[in-house]
UniProtKB/TrEMBL annotation:
<dbReference type="InterPro" id="IPR014746">
    <property type="entry name" value="Gln_synth/guanido_kin_cat_dom"/>
</dbReference>
<feature type="domain" description="GS catalytic">
    <location>
        <begin position="184"/>
        <end position="619"/>
    </location>
</feature>
<dbReference type="InterPro" id="IPR008146">
    <property type="entry name" value="Gln_synth_cat_dom"/>
</dbReference>
<dbReference type="Pfam" id="PF00120">
    <property type="entry name" value="Gln-synt_C"/>
</dbReference>
<dbReference type="InterPro" id="IPR052725">
    <property type="entry name" value="GS_Type-3"/>
</dbReference>
<dbReference type="InterPro" id="IPR022147">
    <property type="entry name" value="GSIII_N"/>
</dbReference>
<dbReference type="InterPro" id="IPR008147">
    <property type="entry name" value="Gln_synt_N"/>
</dbReference>
<dbReference type="InterPro" id="IPR027303">
    <property type="entry name" value="Gln_synth_gly_rich_site"/>
</dbReference>
<dbReference type="Pfam" id="PF18318">
    <property type="entry name" value="Gln-synt_C-ter"/>
</dbReference>
<comment type="similarity">
    <text>Belongs to the glutamine synthetase family.</text>
</comment>
<dbReference type="GO" id="GO:0004356">
    <property type="term" value="F:glutamine synthetase activity"/>
</dbReference>
<dbReference type="Pfam" id="PF12437">
    <property type="entry name" value="GSIII_N"/>
</dbReference>
<protein>
    <submittedName>
        <fullName>Glutamine synthetase type III</fullName>
    </submittedName>
</protein>
<feature type="domain" description="GS beta-grasp">
    <location>
        <begin position="86"/>
        <end position="179"/>
    </location>
</feature>
<dbReference type="InterPro" id="IPR040577">
    <property type="entry name" value="Gln-synt_C"/>
</dbReference>
<dbReference type="GO" id="GO:0006542">
    <property type="term" value="P:glutamine biosynthetic process"/>
</dbReference>
Length: 718
């Protein structure tokens, strides 16, 4: 059977009834946020007193009044049923990193043999899923099953559609019976409030009016790969682990640099349009789509939103991409490194702070050297990143992201800040006491009168920096493509809240002593930059010279692997920081550390067992069968030697995985830290040896005998 022909034929005939998309006019006028119960939508369905009470919670942070719950629930149910929903679910973010949902019908028996549609305020505000069935890191024992979901009124309810109906999804937090957070949303919401409480007093020192509130904003770019669905299901490694554990490099990869921003293939473009229409209906403001660097790699990016809503929308974006790809005979791969030897995928988090009046606090304006407020908050970010390099690194740590960080496609594991030439010069001049403007931006001439002169930014971009200032925001580029962005943003919000509160206290003291505002801010910015400028680096983050300078010359942390980083999560300074702002208790922090160790161990263990299975049951039999054919024609010593090498490496991998089982049995324990380290130090190297032998063998065995779709097929057949 010619599988390649089948896949190519499918690519040419991908169109289905479901592929018809809305017209541009429909998308603009009728589709956007059509499946979202917006604040304006609620306003038309609620009485004025009820709406004002809810609005006070959403816009001013007032405590939610439970007495309005029944009224809101009725409005929500009526709206959802008008949209075709038959069920509702409390949609939450457990510590798996994915989302969770349990559907309940609106239909309830009325006791007279009939049924009514019912949904009460109690059902809106709280539900009770099984807490023991989700990761808790020791917060809950197996027999302690009670958990609660609590309605998050700040994130709007929405409709998720499927082929035979629709479901009302109510964003919720998830907590244990004892009130401890078992999710990613609760700490994120706490961190948003911590940032508000820290930044608002600082803004008042700069003359902000009463009633000003501050939240963090976020736009998360999403990179992903697309491969033909048939190839996916013929690769046990992709099905079980999300990445290819084997695969010889094809003659052509990304070295011609012709895929980036290239013309998008027709089937892929139709998939993108379909997915974007669904995202528009969910109120997700996707703005950009394009080919990424690697063949078969793409990107979608939204514009800024409040960070809590952006985190919800990011989870929905991943879900829509996965679901929609199947309609077009494709599979969306969100793993950080699905293919060795080509670029992996990240999730760049564009972060800033904004007031409820729409002011971006990291907007430098036309004269950043004169913008005291901008310089104050920027210096607070510099201080935050320097003081808490470890937390930012931990927030993006995972077994999958380890394959990507530090390669020539992603920032190194060393945290540094790129400010650009103009901003760096401004801070340098402030430090030296000169003041004044830095590099002029000016116009960029293009050498021909046909093309207009372009306004030139005063600083270039730096794609090797893990944390870069990009004009009016900071781009945290180290987050992995498959992870929830909630924890990285929780960390960012909290560390910046800490830095701002310290600098604001200094500023208030200076003003209280009669010092002029301009002079006081200049002194604080100068002292902060002088103390923390070691974290600023505008050069090549990939160079070996930088690694040496960062680690040995500047004393910056280089936490190379997930396990190097995660062990620092419960360090005293981190526990004190999260406790100070009420974001995570010591127990909640320790639980997250245990879960990170556990997920690391299980991820690598699944990969190790899958590697052994594929080597023994697919590659070795293929080599033996091919050797039989070659034997009749005189044999091949090279194939025979490599087959022996593959078998020996597979035996060594089995020994490495078995050694852990025997060790645990002897001790009678189940220490997850030790198991995770064993995976990193013994199983991963053994897996690599199996791969080396198998990939060399792939280049010798006839294609008709090789049991797996190759990189050439998966990356280039679209």
């Amino acid at each position: 059977m010619n599988h390649d022909f089948d896949v190519i034929s499918a690519a040419r005939n991908w169109r289905t009834d479901a592929s018809a998309s809305a017209t541009p006019h429909d998308i603009v006028t009728g589709v956007y946020a059509s499946d979202v119960l917006t604040l304006e939508g609620l306003k038309t369905r609620l009485s004025k007193p009820t709406f004002k009470s809810l609005q006070a919670t959403l816009e001013r942070g007032a405590t939610l009044d439970p007495t309005i719950a029944d009224t809101v629930a009725l409005a929500m149910k009526t709206w959802a049923m008008e949209k075709g929903a038959t069920h509702y679910t409390h949609w939450f973010h457990p510590l798996t990193g994915s989302t969770a949902e349990k559907h309940d019908s609106f239909v309830s028996p009325d006791g007279d043999g009939a049924a009514i549609a019912a949904f009460s305020g109690k059902e809106l505000i709280q539900a009770e899923p099984d807490a023991s069935s989700f990761p808790s890191g020791g917060l809950r024992a197996t027999f302690e099953a009670r958990g609660y979901t609590a309605w998050d009124a700040s994130s709007p309810a929405f409709i998720m559609r499927h082929a035979n109906g629709a479901t009302l999804c109510i964003p919720t937090a998830f907590a244990s019976w004892t009130g401890e957070a078992l999710d990613h949303k609760t700490p994120l919401l706490r961190s948003v409030e911590a940032l508000n409480k820290a930044v608002t007093p600082a803004l008042k020192l700069f003359g902000a009016s009463e009633g000003t509130r501050v939240s963090s904003t976020l736009g998360a770019e999403q990179e992903y790969f697309l491969i033909a669905e048939e190839y996916f299901y013929r690769r046990p490694d992709l099905v079980m682990t999300g990445r290819t554990l084997f695969g010889a490099q094809p003659p052509r990869g990304q070295e011609l640099e012709d895929h980036y921003f290239g013309a998008i293939p027709d089937r892929v473009l139709s998939f993108m349009t379909d997915a974007e229409t669904q995202l528009y209906a969910l109120g997700i403001p996707v703005k950009t789509r394009h080919n990424e660097v690697a063949p078969g790699q793409f990107e979608i990016a939204p514009i800024f939103e409040d960070s809590n809503i952006a985190a919800d929308h990011q989870q929905l974006t991943m879900q829509v991409l996965r679901n929609t790809a199947r309609k077009y005979g494709l599979v969306a791969l969100l793993h950080e490194k699905p293919f060795a030897g080509v670029n992996g995928s990240g999730k760049h988090c564009n972060w800033s702070m904004a007031t409820n009046k729409g002011e971006n606090l990291l907007e430098p304006g036309d004269t950043p050297h004169e913008n005291l407020q901008f310089l104050f908050f920027t210096s607070a970010v510099i201080k935050a990143v320097d003081d808490h390099q470890d937390l930012l690194r931990i927030s993006v740590a995972s077994a999958s992201n380890d394959h990507r960080l530090g390669a020539n496609e992603a920032p190194p594991a060393i945290l540094s800040i790129f400010l650009g030439s103009e901003l760096t010069e401004i801070f340098d001049r402030l430090e030296s006491g000169q003041g004044g403007r830095g590099s002029e931006a000016g116009l960029l001439g293009l050498g021909t009168n046909v093309l207009p002169p372009l306004p030139r930014h005063a600083g270039d971009r730096n794609r090797t920096s893990p944390f870069a200032f990009t004009g009016n925001k900071f781009e945290f580029r180290a987050a992995g493509s498959s992870q929830s962005i909630s924890f990285p943003i929780t960390v960012l919000n909290t560390i910046v809240a800490d830095a701002v509160s310290e600098l604001a206290a200094e500023l208030e003291a200076k003003l209280g002593a009669g010092e002029d505002l301009n002079a006081a801010v200049a002194d604080i910015v100068k002292a902060t930059y002088t103390k923390h400028k070691r974290i600023v680096f505008n050069g090549d983050g990939y160079s070996e010279e930088w690694h040496q300078e960062a680690e040995h010359g500047r004393g910056l942390l280089n936490l190379r692997t997930t396990l190097d980083a995660v062990e620092h999560l419960t360090d005293g300074k981190n526990g004190a920081l999260f406790a100070k702002f009420g974001v995570l208790s010591d127990r909640e922090l320790a639980a997250r550390q245990e879960i990170m160790y556990d997920i690391y161990f299980k991820t690598v263990n699944i990969e190790g067992e899958t590697t052994e299975y594929m080597a023994r049951t697919m590659m070795l039999p293929a080599a033996v069968k091919y050797l039989g054919e070659l034997h009749a024609a005189g044999g091949s010593r090279a194939v025979k030697a490599l087959a022996g090498e593959l078998e020996a490496a597979t035996d060594a991998l089995y020994d490495a995985t078995q050694a852990l089982s025997e060790h645990n049995a002897a001790l009678g324990g189940d220490e997850v830290h030790e198991k995770a380290h064993h995976m990193r130090d013994h199983v991963l190297p053994a897996m690599q040896q199996v791969r080396v032998a198998a990939d060399r063998l792939e280049k010798l065995v006839a294609e008709a005998h090789w049991p797996l779709p190759t990189y050439r097929q998966m990356l280039f057949v679209k």
